[in-house]
């Protein structure tokens, strides 16, 4: 893992090690093509560091890892899934200042805003789903005396999670939290503009003790990694937050591949008069 970390210095002079590889099976690895892209500081317009550039072959590896991990994660006791999610929330809170600075240099937010609106909110999200993990249940529905009518909630399988640039860590919580709580595994693609906090979260996922392959993180461009993820036949669900145009492309790819379930939050703009 250390070979794919870049030592960085925050503007306040403090240092940290930034993961820059693709997280597959709890290890940060280079991309198959050994390509990378630069994450840019929006304030200085200078590169912060180079990050592995995942493409279709990397998505294939990540999905295969998630698919292999799915039966074991599905069979994991809900209370244990909750314990791991709670541990992840603890680690986010432990590193709250570091994560807030990462969000600030990578996304341009003030540190105070990033701390409250992104990092602590992400920890709270993971903690909520930690508490929900052992409370998911089906229903028994009364129809007539001679009929048993019941529902059973089961995890879907591999979930493809594509997060936007504006709330990268918080959206990881919104998408990873419920997927892991329910017993699904995940391949997460952070936005190419702000990949650093998601990759650092991957480091915390490993530290928390999640089994190999349960969480995989593939940075890259939407037209390469995102397109491959949304059209992958072994992905059971896509959750995407971003533009309406990209959402339409994801919906088409999801339908053309395996009619995968989709959750799309699109076009977060509103009208204003000045």
UniProtKB/TrEMBL annotation:
<dbReference type="Pfam" id="PF00171">
    <property type="entry name" value="Aldedh"/>
</dbReference>
<feature type="domain" description="Aldehyde dehydrogenase">
    <location>
        <begin position="37"/>
        <end position="270"/>
    </location>
</feature>
<dbReference type="InterPro" id="IPR016161">
    <property type="entry name" value="Ald_DH/histidinol_DH"/>
</dbReference>
<dbReference type="InterPro" id="IPR016162">
    <property type="entry name" value="Ald_DH_N"/>
</dbReference>
<keyword id="KW-0560">Oxidoreductase</keyword>
<dbReference type="InterPro" id="IPR015590">
    <property type="entry name" value="Aldehyde_DH_dom"/>
</dbReference>
<dbReference type="GO" id="GO:0004029">
    <property type="term" value="F:aldehyde dehydrogenase (NAD+) activity"/>
</dbReference>
<protein>
    <recommendedName>
        <fullName>aldehyde dehydrogenase (NAD(+))</fullName>
        <ecNumber>1.2.1.3</ecNumber>
    </recommendedName>
</protein>
<comment type="similarity">
    <text>Belongs to the aldehyde dehydrogenase family.</text>
</comment>
